Amino acid sequence: METLTGNPLIKALVILFLVSATTATGNTPFIIAHKKALLTRLKSGTERVSVSIDIYNQGFSTAYDVSLVDDSWPQEMFGIVSGNTSKSWERLDAGGVLSHSFELEAKRQGMFNGVPAVITYRIPTKASLQEAYSTPILPLDILAERPPEKKLEWRLLAQYGNQISVVSIVVLFIYLIATPSKSSAAKASKKKR
Hints:
Pfam families: TRAP_beta (PF05753). Keywords: Membrane, Transmembrane, Transmembrane helix. This is Translocon-associated protein subunit beta. The protein has helices at about 1-5, 10-25, 155-180, 180-190; strands at about 30-40, 45-55, 65-70, 80, 85-90, 95-105, 110, 120, 130-135, 140. It is an alpha+beta fold. It has a four-stranded antiparallel β-sheet, with no helix packed on it. A hairpin with a 5-residue loop joins strand 1 (about 30-40) and strand 2. The longest helix has 25 residues, at about 155-180. It is extended. The termini are far apart.
């Protein structure tokens, strides 16, 4: 037990847990935001980026004047197809979730490293705005040449699925009949004595 408590990593995790527990039990909002980006290649050769941001209030009070700004998408690299990169809400209740999504179209090829979105909100007990950051996205390889993916042909599986299942059941039945069980092998060895 002494080696566990003497480990600096364990101490850091315990301190982090205690700090987060005291923050969560306070009478303030605790904002967590998750940012996701999904690349979709269109038949025309262009690529679209679908971005969604979910904002969670894990605290015990309401956050007011919640605004989201995600200006990490440069205009020379992306064009907005639908939605906006910013959004505002009047409030986010305790335990509530807000979601925002928008779609971009890639203009040029290259790697893109996005930064977290910024969420600002107001707490009634404090005059200044509070800030929270979303999770960052993984690097996106925009308009990259990708080898074709080898997917299971669902069409073939649907067409020949019945035959495959019947053959596998017959093979399993023959295997069970052909292999001797342990009890019959033990009886055979007793009879030889």
